[in-house]
């Protein structure tokens, strides 16, 4: 019988209080410049729940809590108390509510939860608005099975790109970010407001720890045509950043993603396409026949902040963050 995503996570994850790469202290330290905080709940002297968050000041010193750079989700981490499903549900709700009550008051507080959070009922109970976003995931399974389940046009595109390119491993995070920033704007026609220095530091930290890789596709003359960056934890490999030159072969990004999927499967990891930000991105990921998975969000903001955000969205230029 094929293992489900939930069963895979339960079997592989060794620390329920650090369920993802993005919950790890070193990641949060770099992503926030040391300005993150963690709410904790103890039971009989033992930590049973943790909720990292990023308090930052924006718009005249008003406190805003949001996701740190390149951190696409966080959310509460609660230990499994065991027992019947109703007991587990009640315990998670109780601990999560205690975590929320420890959060500072803010004009805006946004949480996007990891795959281990199946609801945001506790957030709703204290005034947060619930939402959902989606990602696409591939369970580790035989590579020939994944290949055969792909769209035939995608397989053809990958084979065509493979004939024209050499796959190499990047070692310079700064070079990667310059390439990314240059061509994401040319390809998308959008403004890139990412902090390239912070992203480069995160990439470098992942490379040093053996927790990430820059995949490059180079033309036969050595020119860089496309590059992607993936980072991973025990459970999953996350497809975080991608860029290519406008004239690159249409299958070159698929080729790099296929290479990253191969390595994730060999490590026994889920390959997480890390969020659907557009219909085009969803279609590209769908070439690999992944599973559509929800990521629950919760937002609490003051009335004045809600009005300000609405006005800002009308006058701000289109932006591209990931």
Word description of this protein:
This protein is an alpha+beta fold. The protein has two domains: 152 residues, Aminopeptidase (3-Layer(aba) Sandwich); 153 residues, Gcn5-related N-acetyltransferase (GNAT) (Aminopeptidase). It is 38% helix and 29% strand. The protein is built from eleven helices and 14 strands. The strands form two sheets. Strands 1, 2, 3, 4, 5, 6, 7, 9, 10, 11, 12 and 13 form a twelve-stranded mixed β-sheet that branches. Strands 8-14 form a two-stranded parallel sheet. Helix 6 crosses helix 9 and helix 7 packs across helix 8. The two termini are 36 Å apart.
How many domains? The number is: 2
CATH class of the largest domain reads Alpha Beta
Q: Average pLDDT value? A: 90
Q: Which sequence of SSEs, written as H and E, runs from N to C?
A: HHEEEEHEHEHHEHEHEEEHEHEHE
Please tell me the CATH architecture of the largest domain by its name: 3-Layer(aba) Sandwich
Count of separate DSSP helical elements: 11
Radius of gyration, taken over Cα atoms and rounded to an integer in Å:
20 Å
Tell me the number of strands. Answer: 14
Q: Describe the biggest sheet?
A: 12 strands, mixed
Helix content: 25-40%
Q: Give the uncertain stretches in residue-range form.
A: 317-322
CATH superfamily of the largest domain: Gcn5-related N-acetyltransferase (GNAT)
The separation of the N and C termini measures 36 Å
CATH topology of the largest domain: Aminopeptidase
What is the strand content? 25-35%
Q: Structural class of the helices, strands and pairings?
A: alpha+beta
Shape: globular
């Amino acid at each position: 019988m094929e293992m489900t995503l939930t069963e895979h996570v339960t079997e592989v994850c060794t620390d329920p209080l650090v369920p993802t790469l993005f919950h790890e202290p070193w990641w949060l330290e770099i992503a926030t410049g040391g300005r993150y905080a963690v709410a904790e709940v103890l039971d009989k002297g033992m930590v049973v729940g943790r909720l990292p968050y990023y308090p930052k000041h924006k718009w005249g010193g008003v406190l805003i809590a949001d996701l740190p750079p390149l951190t696409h989700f966080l959310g509460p981490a609660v230990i499994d108390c065991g027992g019947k499903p109703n007991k587990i549900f009640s315990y998670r709700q109780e601990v999560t509510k205690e975590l929320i009550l420890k959060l500072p008051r803010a004009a805006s507080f946004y949480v996007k939860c990891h795959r281990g959070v199946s609801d945001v009922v506790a957030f709703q109970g204290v005034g947060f608005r619930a939402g959902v976003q989606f990602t696409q995931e591939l369970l580790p399974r035989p590579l020939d099975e994944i290949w055969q389940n792909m769209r035939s046009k995608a397989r053809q595109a990958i084979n065509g790109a493979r004939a024209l390119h050499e796959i190499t491993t990047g070692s310079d995070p700064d070079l990667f970010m310059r390439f990314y920033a240059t061509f994401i704007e040319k390809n998308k026609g959008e403004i890139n407001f990412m902090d390239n220095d912070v992203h480069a530091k995160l990439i470098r930290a992942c490379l040093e720890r053996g927790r990430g890789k820059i995949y490059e596709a180079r033309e036969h003359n050595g020119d860089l045509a496309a590059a992607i960056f993936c980072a991973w934890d025990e459970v999953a490999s996350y497809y975080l950043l991608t860029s290519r030159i406008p004239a690159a072969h249409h299958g070159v990004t698929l080729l790099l993603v296929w290479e990253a999927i191969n390595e994730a499967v060999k490590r026994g990891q889920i390959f997480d396409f890390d969020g659907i930000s557009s219909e085009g991105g969803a279609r590209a990921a769908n070439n690999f026949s992944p599973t559509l998975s929800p990521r629950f969000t919760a937002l609490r903001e003051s009335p004045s902040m809600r009005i300000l955000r609405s006005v800002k969205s009308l006058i701000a230029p289109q932006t591209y963050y990931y």
